[in-house]
Amino acid sequence: MPKETFFHLPEDKRNLICQVALDEFATHSFDRASINRIVARAGIAKGSFYQYFENKQDLFRYLLQLIAEEKRNYLAPVLHNPERHDFFTLLRELYRAGIQFAVEHRKYAEIGRRLLASKGTPIYAQVVDEGMPQAYDLFKGLLEKAIARGEVRADIDVEMVVYLIAALNTLLLEYYTEHVTWDYDERMFDTVDRFIDFLKHGLKANESGGVSP
Amino acid sequence: MPKETFFHLPEDKRNLICQVALDEFATHSFDRASINRIVARAGIAKGSFYQYFENKQDLFRYLLQLIAEEKRNYLAPVLHNPERHDFFTLLRELYRAGIQFAVEHRKYAEIGRRLLASKGTPIYAQVVDEGMPQAYDLFKGLLEKAIARGEVRADIDVEMVVYLIAALNTLLLEYYTEHVTWDYDERMFDTVDRFIDFLKHGLKANESGGVSP
DNA sequence: ATAGAATGTGACCCAATGGTCATGTGACCG
DNA sequence: CGGTCACATGACCATTGGGTCACATTCTAT
Hints:
The structure is a homodimer.
Chain A: H1 4-8, H2 11-27, H3 35-42, H4 46-52, H5 56-79, H6 87-104, H7 106-117, H8 122-127, H9 131-148, H10 158-180, H11 186-201
Chain A binds a DNA duplex through helix 4.
């Protein structure tokens, strides 16, 4: 985490450094992100950078923290009282909130995506091990309750489905932003609904000859 | 692609260089893979390396070609006569073959995974743009035929489902190798079947109160 | 005004990398 | 045997990066 000196800086200078760094990490993998470029763009001396942050990873962790905090603002309302929704509606809201966060914080989303994709690199091992179990536990808890309430089939492999639901979260965002749009509008609701429909009913044609659901 | 000199080498020397390079690219991202390490481990002079390959990317592309050729051996039998299977059985076979390839060629699988995950890096843009449309077109063709034959719901968003089916291919492998095992045995059939079941029927509990399918 | 603390500076350090190039070696041929 | 060609060699080059450090400047308190 940043040193005291960083927090002594005027706010606009702090923001500038963070914005420049966010740009850099959103544009390049961790390995290719360059402190030389960051300091040049932020207009600070390189030595000063090390007065604010321990090292490159320290900066990166700080940014990840900012990102996580902001994302929490989007997810918290949905998770405020999960019992008020059935499982699929809750999932729909979680996915929707995730997309809203991403389209309103594009750089944050890209940094998160790069981080997840960096599995098998040193930075992943050093930074990621914590946040994942929480997300898994959340989905698992929700799924088990939904099974108990009869909303979700009881004959599924819970671990596998938890894994899928979490992964589909990422997939949905990627599909929407790469194949549909970066706008937060009707199409987003459309796309999320189609994903949820797929999750509910699968692909198989109904054998009675009618349309599935 | 490699220079003539590479193919003049004794076969065992060629194989050694390839094996060492495969190790390197399976262990590190493209950016972190080091030619210095490769030549040291292969016991060749660095200058010699550049007599065999144009540069790092040339070597990488050559390895990718080897990988693609080997993978084709696993997929070709399944795709030999797709009409003999219904859509879900065909998909099951494709997924199964993909896992078999991966567990029998672990390094190849890891290199492929790293490459796909490297979206947003220079190497991805330079190497990947071709292979993807083919895979998409394949899945799309199969899906459209399945819809026409009444095996798959006609009310789905084809583009989206093609995207999902392709992505689930990767997810299935990741889930199996990280959460189940690297062995090619009963559990693999089990896991694939559960994935296919999910694809067919989704998660929603059957409203008539019985078990879904 | 002055001293000390806090902060700013950028040249430098060291390591590592991909790639080059002048030279060396060995096989082959006439 | 000498010349030529194909290949091998590893020191070198240029660049880049993360991080350091001796010095400079600014701020604050007395």
